[in-house]
């Protein structure tokens, strides 16, 4: 892992891509780390490809340049693979976490899938996959804990919405950890 | 208290802590989140007494701020880009009258072609408006500069613009230390206007002044701006005493004391430059950075002493004067002796300024007087050829976009 852990989140407008990066930065902050989240500064529109970034570090983050060599790429909507070079610059030891119900063949070393939209529909009642993907991210990376992700979600949302999203994150965490366990046994 | 929040939210909270009494604003990206948050604070009663005036244009926003300030209220507004241009006539009135209004400019390009992204063209176009201009490097500094701006504005009785990079800072979530109300109250005392419209003690403000005194009024305005060269650093020093961190002032150096090459810049690119300087220093390249926090008035002496030992000076600018070149460079040149001086125009209209590009740039020893960082020369050549070969070559911007699509397909 590089001194600064860099995450790029891809998806489409309306899926909470920017919120995902912001929540991730809050989760890291709650664990006493420095973090910086920012959108790709487009005129975000519903349905259009959206990119957001998050840096996490033990030291103050000075750069304000976009992330070009991410340690992790989170894909909230697999249809963006055709629209953008989603895996551009991904570090060889990095990983991709995709919102999908089935395994995806990608030109990247470590690929994990989590059915984040299905989890969101079941638990939140809306197809917003960001919270579940953050749970999955916590499971793969260990950069932030599931507790911190849940705390960030509860800081941002209130009441039943917060609890439902935290539950989606927790479920995704379990799914990804099981996925990782299976791989270790192979 | 440390919080992980959006830059706009942080600025809104810092402004609210300074207890503005009138906020008049018109939304425009990337400034909107700031006044949105403030309007919500006024509505909820969290910020009171304060009147939020939802005006119909930026011209009205500044006009209402002028009226409020003249009536003795602490007044605030925020804008960007075309919005700033739309209030220009009123900007000059605010400074000409000496009204201590504080305004955030969330820096954004100016059209045409329309572009919502960050550069410094908007604020730079108002460098001669008589407003003080402070540029924030980080969201923490953006917060801190607002707290300092009310002090500076009211001490000098002159308006202050706090410039922060649109989107790059306004929309970035970063860790910021938001001060407590009692700390800000101790630093920013209640507003004591130098001049006020008061029915009990009537005065007129803004009357016509003819040739007999106009020069003297302007001269006094100039003297007041020069006073800022003392007031700004003293407020920054007092801020450091109160809050325990360094923000504001005239200029700040980073590894520049013994540097052969010194890069001068303003705003959020300074952080990226510092990382680049650390990389280059590790490779044995002698380079440092000087950040300009106060651009108006221009700190000639501070710049001169910050770069006096440099063998060459590179000014990285997020705006430029078409047909002339670097805007900041022109002032830097006046401050220097005779070192080689190079302008690098970077980050126009939201183009990212990357460490890789800065790194390669600063390794070059063949820099000319004016360089456009990461210029797509192929794209430029295509349009130049079109202009030579086709009499009705069409609108440039649309031609370039069409070319980019073609390049992308091939």
Topology overview:
The complex is a heterodimer of chains A (186) and B (410).
Chain A: E1 4-12, H1 17-30, E2 34-39, E3 49-57, E4 72-75, E5 95-99, E6 110-114, H2 116-123, H3 130-141, H4 146-156, H5 159-185
Parallel strand pairs in A: 1-4, 4-5, 5-6
Antiparallel strand pairs in A: 1-3, 2-3
Helix pairs in contact in A: 1-3, 1-4, 2-3, 2-5, 3-4, 3-5, 4-5
Chain B: E1 2-6, H1 7-17, E2 22-25, H2 32-44, E3 51-54, H3 58-70, E4 75-79, H4 81-86, H5 88-97, E5 102-107, H6 121-124, E6 132-135, H7 139-156, E7 160-165, E8 173-177, H8 181-187, H9 214-243, E9 251-254, E10 261-265, H10 269-282, E11 287-292, E12 294-296, H11 300-307, E13 312-317, H12 327-335, E14 341-345, H13 355-363, E15 370-372, H14 377-389, H15 396-409
Parallel strand pairs in B: 2-3, 2-4, 4-5, 5-7, 6-7, 10-11, 10-13, 13-14, 14-15
Antiparallel strand pairs in B: 1-8, 6-12, 9-11
Helix pairs in contact in B: 1-2, 1-7, 3-5, 7-9, 10-13, 11-12, 14-15
Structure description:
The complex is a heterodimer of chains A (about 190) and B (about 400). Chain A is an alpha/beta fold and about 190 residues long. Chain A has one domain (about 5-185): 3-Layer(aba) Sandwich (Pyruvate-ferredoxin Oxidoreductase, domain 3), CATH 3.40.920.10. Chain A has 5 helices and 6 strands. Chain A has helices at about 15-30, 115-125, 130-140, 145-155, 160-185, and strands at about 5-10, 35-40, 50-55, 70-75, 95-100, 110-115. In chain A, helix 2 packs across helix 3. The longest helix of chain A has 27 residues, at about 160-185. The two termini of chain A are about 25 Å apart. The mean pLDDT of chain A is about 90. Chain B has about 400 residues and is an alpha/beta fold. In chain B, strands 3-2-4-5-7-6-12 form a 7-stranded mixed β-sheet, sandwiched between helices. A 6-stranded mixed β-sheet of chain B has the order 9-11-10-13-14-15, with helices on both faces. In chain B, helix 7 packs across helix 9 (about 215-245), helix 10 (about 270-280) crosses helix 13 (about 355-365) and helix 11 (about 300-305) packs across helix 12. The model of chain B has no long low-confidence stretch (mean pLDDT about 95). The interface of A and B includes residues 29, 34 and 61 of A. Strand 2 (about 35-40) of chain A pairs antiparallel with strand 8 of chain B, so a sheet runs across the interface.
